[in-house]
Amino acid sequence: MISALFAGLCDDAALFPPGNAPLPDAVPAHARHLSAPYADLVGPFVFPVARLDELTPGPLDLSLTLPGGPATLEPALDRLAQIDGATAVALEIAVPAEQTAAEFFAAMDAVETLTAGLDVFVEVPRGERRADFLAALTGSQFAAKFRTGGVVAEAYPDEDELASALATVIASGVPFKATAGLHHAVRNTDPHTGFEQHGFLNVLLATRHALGGAGVDEVAATLAERDGALLARALRDLPADVVGAVRTAFRSFGTCSILEPLEDLVALNLVPSSALASADQGAHA
């Protein structure tokens, strides 16, 4: 039901804004997603380390967010080890303010044994530090994480800024994920906030173009495209090797709603409509 292009694309960030789902609701909802026919769309449950004390025992694959940086990793994993069934499969590590790339990656080297076997995403800062972090990621065992939105307009990078970042990591072979702001498949203006929001199909197609040698201007134009039918046609029935390359580069994005991306994919005929019927049944289970 879910094509390889979208497999594991949506990390379940239900706890985060703007969804802010209560934890007692979010965990059972995640389990329902994983038992639904569209389960292949769903990645791990994104969880903030500051709330580990609220987590109850039970099987749950987590992508842990560490806004405090590498120094918070060891105590977080020690606490997680005390929660039966919960397992970290990925880490999303932010860079403390004013920390240089050299300082950050030295700190990561110091905890190297703790990250073995985990997907590690470094949240690349915006601004003047970005170039140094992107350079340091090249050839490392780490992936990049880019913020593509937030609760204020300034949190949204424009298409030129995002295109430059994507072109850089794709050219250097650094995988990436995105977080925040990708609420819909296609570039749009949010009717409630007026924020200009990137679309996850735009990012997929921009990745495909960058892998094919497109320059930053073409990547930016793809990110700015608002014709959903055009994006869907370009992504439908891609050869398996191209799909593999695109998803090796663009790993996933965090979304506070699994159903909104699913609804958009159904509307664009990229996922069968029967997926929505099963989603509706699960929502009322």
Describe the 3D structure.
- This protein has 11 helices and 10 strands.
- The chain is globular.
- By secondary structure, it is of the alpha/beta class.
- The mean pLDDT is 95.
Give a quick rundown of the structure:
This protein has 285 residues and is of the alpha/beta class. Helices cover 39% and strands 17% of the residues.
Element pattern in H and E: EHEEHEHEHEHEEEHHHHEHH
Query: Helical amount among residues, as a percent range?
Result: 25-40%
Briefly note the structural class of the backbone: alpha/beta
Number of strands: 10
Per DSSP, the total helix count is: 11
Unreliable stretches covering 5 or more consecutive residues: none
How is the largest sheet built, in terms of strand order? 1-2-3-4-5-6-7-10
Biggest sheet architecture: 8 strands, parallel, barrel
Radius of gyration from the alpha-carbon trace, in angstroms: 18 Å
- Which band does the percent of strand residues land in? 15-25%
Q: pLDDT average, as an integer?
A: 95
State the separation between the terminal residues, measured CA to CA: 21 Å
How would the global form be characterised? globular
